[in-house]
Each structure stands twice: as structure tokens, then as C-alpha cells.
Amino acid sequence: MEEFPPAPNVAGTSLDGTAIFTISADENAALCKSTRVEPSSDGTAHPIYYYIATQVAMGKTVAGVCETCEFDVEDGPMMGSSGVRFAQQLMVGQDYKVTGEILSLVRKKSRKLGVMDVLTYRLRLHPAEGGDAVLETDNVWVLPRKELAA
Q: Are strands 78-86 and 95-110 parallel, antiparallel or unpaired?
């Protein structure tokens, strides 16, 4: 069995954001229109904002997360999965902040990709003024390690 160097030890790396994310009524209406649904009249935002808000307001860019994992973003990170648990609905006009962390980075051998790292990270969206998370999402990315596939 081939041996590869271990994946970087990044578990526990903070992804807490400092930016505030607000779902504007205009942006929500445009997104709803693009998905052919009517914006809700009760002020709830389209649920896909769980992904948009957490990705935009986390403490690292996609390139920054890749850099933390010692992976070149130009090598093409791929989304493996994204799951969400809502405690409350997202609201238009509400200010949100993100907390989160990298859970794991596991090196694996794949028949199609050769060597890859599987990154799992968790993000939580909180009201900016404080309080319990309105949602929690676990995201999995696949990072193909072209330099180790030879």
C-alpha cells in the first residue's frame, strides 16, 4: 500500500467571521425571482441564504480556507456536500454573524482523483446582536492533491 504524507493538522482552526451579513429585501427578491418563487410576505428570506451568508461572512475566503489546508485554490476545490439544521427561519433585514471551525482534514486515496483531502467544517449563523445560532451547517470539500497523485 502506498504511503503519503499526512494531511495538515488543521482541525480546530477558527472560521469565526468579523463581517456582518444582512439579507436585504432587494437581494432576497432577486434571488427568489431567479428560482421562480415569490418572496415571502412575512419577512422570511429564501433558505439558500444559509449557504450564502455563512460562506460570505465566515472569517476566511475560499482561497484562505484552502491556504490553511496547504492547498492551492487554483487546483480546484470541489464541494462534496452541505447539510444544514435550522433552529429558526432566516429573516430579511436581520444582521447576522458567523462562528465556526474546521472539524477535520482527512487524506484518502481515490480511484478517480488519486490522492485527495476531505475537508469538513462547521459554520453557525447567529443574530449579530447575540443569541443562539439560527442555523448550523456542515460543509465537506474535496481537495484533489495533484502533487501527490503521480
A: unpaired
Amino acid code (one letter) for 133: A
Backbone angles phi, psi at 66, to 5 degrees: -60, -45
Q: Alpha-carbon distance 125 to 80, whole Å?
A: 21
List the grid coordinates of 32.
427568489
Give this prediction's pTM: 0.92
Q: Could you give the CA distance from residue 149 to residue 136 in angstroms, rounded to a whole number?
A: 34
Which CA distances in Å does 38 have to 29, 31, 51, 77, 86?
A: 8, 10, 20, 33, 21
94-113 tens-digit pLDDT: 999 999 999 999 999 888 76
What 3-state DSSP class applies to 1?
Answer: coil
| Cell (9 digits) for 72 | 492551492
Cα torsion through 57, 58, 64, 69, rounded to 10:
-160
